[in-house]
Design a protein that fits this description.
Elements: E1 12-17, E2 23-28, E3 34-40, E4 43-47, E5 55-61, E6 67-72, E7 80-85, E8 88-91, E9 102-109, E10 115-120, E11 126-131
Length: 135
């Protein structure tokens, strides 16, 4: 068993691991907010949220070390689905054509870069989504 540590706070949670042993999740900071993390080679790396969102959560990682998850206001509001590539967060809503579905959480990513998650419609209904890269 390996203690992954935290980002200076009291707790953390691992949510995913890839075939290379790289782990993702979220960990508490000293100010009690939580950030997504990537744990690799014995070191926890802070995956900072998007500007304007104090909290983030890493849900899954693929073999290319692409991490998906969400950012928000730490209280369940202001949610946005994100992907971190080389530690840089990008809102998934900015990578798709305009749609009525607001992508709020990315739950998994496979080695082809396909992402599944949840989105919300203007009427509040929650639907699942599948994003398939166009490359």
């Amino acid at each position: 068993m390996i203690d992954l540590g935290t980002l200076g706070g009291q707790n953390g949670s691992a949510n995913g691991v890839n075939q290379n042993g790289v782990v993702v999740g979220n960990a508490q900071l000293p100010d009690r907010t939580h950030h997504a993390f990537l744990w690799m080679n014995g070191t926890m790396h802070d995956l900072r949220p998007l500007a304007g969102s104090p909290c983030s959560n890493g849900n899954a990682i693929n073999a290319r070390d692409q991490v998906v998850g969400r950012v928000g206001d730490c209280h369940g509001g202001g949610l946005a689905a994100v992907i971190w590539q080389h530690g840089i967060p990008v809102a998934l809503n900015t990578l798709i054509a305009p749609a009525t579905l607001d992508l709020i959480d990315a739950l998994s990513i496979n080695d082809r870069g396909e992402i599944i998650g949840e989105g919300v419609l203007p009427n509040g209904d929650v639907h699942n989504f599948l994003l398939i890269p166009n490359f």
